[in-house]
Fold this protein.
Amino acid sequence: MQDQQDALEWRAGDVPVSSRFDDPYFSLENGLEETRHVFLAGNGLPARFRSGFHVAELGFGTGLNFLATVQVWRQAALPGVLHFTSFEAYPMGRAAQRRALSRFPDLPVEALEGAPDIRLTIVEGDARATLPHWTGRADAWFLDGFSPAKNPELWQPDLMAQVAQHTAPGGTAATYTAAGFVRRGLAAAGFEVTRAPGFGRKRHMCVARLP
Ligand SMILES: C[S@@+](CC[C@H](N)C(=O)[O-])C[C@H]1O[C@@H](n2cnc3c(N)ncnc32)[C@H](O)[C@@H]1O
């Protein structure tokens, strides 16, 4: 079996591109700004943070979303811990992760190794198989598969239903895509779904809230 490090190419300097899915892990223009716009602001963060807040994610990838979240969590200076659980089928090697993150020198990369204020859990395996067994519930979801056209299995309605079942009341989800089948899947799962202005050249993204 090919390991994930063999399945990477690099574009625009240090942006990893999955050969398996033929798609970049984050925006070629500015991955960190996209994360802040789509996943943080899209979920009302940092304003909604409180002690014990739980973020869950489909697709850990480089850890960029995780580290951007840790950064604003620390800036918020709240007591207690932040939980971050991410579902990942093809974990990236540490060397590739470091190269991908090297363009964002202000991020607290040491948090990948563990930190007293952060509870990071990476659930390895296909999210379609692992998420139904998860006993947690997230306050905010980052839906960050590769593009729905290239990675449709991570956006299918059954999985969106599992996301809803693992969301706390009043919890939210955000994603960079506004693809119709993704919005319909989230709505069928019980979310109130709205389109919001997307990042950069993307006209729309999608935010969802569980009533
Ligand atoms: C766009 S990347 C995620 C980027 C990441 N959030 C970051 O901050 O770098 C999509 C991720 O989804 C993962 N993935 C694809 N299909 C999956 C599946 N069926 N189950 C779990 N993870 C999957 C890929 O391996 C990849 O790491």
User: Anything to note?
Assistant: The chain has a mean pLDDT of 95. The domain at 32-209 is CATH 3.40.50.150 (Rossmann fold). Residues 35 and 65 are 6 Å apart (CA to CA).
